[in-house]
Design brief:
two-stranded antiparallel sheet; Cytochrome Bc1 Complex, Chain D, domain 2; single chain; extended; mainly alpha; 44% helix
Length: 200
């Protein structure tokens, strides 16, 4: 009787291991598949400081104010002064003080990264829900409120990357040889590079 119980337990355990390994193999079968163009486009939304990656479309300050009031004001205040979210304007000349106010106008070095952040993460309760035109427009509105753009400005990929932010020269490139990193586009997981990455 005891032998039969041990045999039953061993059989049950073996069956469970077999089923688990089968399920694991089924889940691993999809690894390494080639992504579709649509999957790549949804994932690859980085905007670089020089404007690389900016999508087609354009926006106006007037439209941006409408977008701001309907989708941003509840967190950032009716005049960008901040509420549940941080202030988006003000702070000029405060960065060297004991209480610096880091806003779009006082701190950010590139207008393109303002666009990138809004497109990627805002509004807080529905990130990536804005159209490109809405992002261009609300970016234009924020830059106008910070005194960076004239009242009649229109933003698109070309005009946005040409904007010079007030604090552009407040940053510097760390060009020490031991921290220089080139973007890896091919053979990124070669053993040598992987071991170097693990050591940092």
């Amino acid at each position: 009787m005891a032998e039969r119980k041990h045999f039953s337990k061993a059989l049950l355990l073996g069956t469970m291991v077999f089923l688990a390994s089968t399920a694991a193999q089924a889940s691993f079968d999809s690894l390494g598949s080639t992504p579709t163009e649509e999957q790549i486009a949804a994932w690859s939304i980085d905007i670089f400081p020089d404007g690389k990656g900016l999508p087609p479309g354009h926006g106006t300050i007037t439209r941006g104010e409408q977008v701001y009031r309907s989708k941003c004001m509840s967190c950032h205040g009716d005049n960008l002064q901040g509420a549940y979210g941080p202030a988006l304007m003000g702070g000029s000349g405060s960065l060297a003080s004991e209480k610096p106010l880091k806003t779009i106008g006082s701190y950010w070095p590139y207008a393109t990264t303002v666009f990138d952040y809004i497109r990627r993460a805002m509004p807080f309760q529905a990130p990536q829900s804005l159209t490109n035109e809405e992002v261009y427009s609300v970016t234009a509105y924020l830059l106008r409120k910070n005194g960076v753009l004239p009242a009649d400005a229109t933003l698109d990929a070309n005009t946005l990357k040409a904007v010079r932010m007030p604090n552009r020269d407040g940053f510097y490139v760390d060009d020490r040889p031991d921290v220089k990193v080139s973007r890896c586009m091919t053979s990124c997981l070669s053993p040598t590079k992987a071991s170097l990455n693990r050591g940092r």
